[in-house]
Amino acid sequence: MTDYQKEKKVVLAYYKALDSAPAGATEPVLRATVSEDHIWRGFHPFDVIVGAASLARDFWDPLHQSLTSLQRRMDIFIAGSNSIKSHGGRWVTSMGHLMGLFDAPWLGIQPTGKIVMLRYADFHRVENGIITETAMYFDIPHLMMQAGLSPFPPQTGEHLVQPGPMTHDGLLFEAQPPEAGNRTLAAINAMISDLGQWNSGMALEDELRRSWHENMLWWGPAGIGSTFTIERYAKQHAGPFRAAFSNRSQTGHICRMAEGHYGGFFGWPNFTATLTGDFMGRPATGQPGDFRVIDLYRREGDKLAENWIFIDLLHFWKMQGVDILEKIAKVPRS
Q1: Could you tell me how far CA 126 lies from the centroid of its own chain?
Q2: Does residue 123 sit in helix, strand or coil?
Q3: What does the alpha-carbon distance between residue 313 and residue 333 come to, in Å, rounded to a whole number?
Q4: pLDDT tens-digit profile of 293-312?
Q5: Is the pTM of this model over 0.90?
Q6: Which of 157, 197, 266, 300 is deepest in the core (most CB within 10 A)?
Q7: Which of 296, 202, 285 minimizes the C-alpha distance to 256?
């Protein structure tokens, strides 16, 4: 049994210290838990931040000051070895919500004084007891919608505060049999092989059935929304998405790993494609756009049953000439 317990303990200690740090005082926590040259990748407008001082100043301190009484509500927690050999490493991944009281402005989004939930997923590379690299992706448009804003036209899927796994077994605090993780990684790789070509010669629903359960759950980001079953996923997201884009690049991941029945990946970006059709209620631009994505999966048998997706839509649309955060966040709430 491959043991990632040391790495898990490092990340759990990091979470505990960071989440309980007083507002404006996250830098000492970060200095104690991340390397001096720690690389942090986050969604627009944060992008890449290097080092503890910059990360505290630019992200964690402002977030703590805005979302008071912050709590981390994890739904998935796993660890594993990176199957992308060019990048390597042992990684710990979690997903859930950062919940707090929205008491001060954040990124120009005006506070509500009410409970809000910032949907997040992160990957941490742990080396010699220290976190050296992090990808933390979070759904800012989802928070905007909780604050009464409308960053996007009506989406094809449904907007929800998303639950964790249907099976309620995503917190893998204990070591897992490696063969289970190998099966999960194999299912993810098979899906990527089908998805990456965009032209299997099969009907979309039949292609999806090769790697997905019929009653799959696709938990998409705000602006696209969530869908249920292969038929509705093909109709409400996969079909319209493929019709909207051309010139899709090859898939490029920094980390892809699995443990037990769970696994996932992230890239920077995962791929690039040109917007040549309508997407998310907006017309074609003819411009390429990056897709920075975290995908997490639950396997059931040899197929994928649930998928949680984080896409940096603010970054994508800014590449298309639309600065949604600048345009929408400062509009007074209705």
Answers
A1: 19
A2: strand
A3: 21
A4: 999 999 999 999 999 999 99
A5: yes
A6: 266
A7: 296
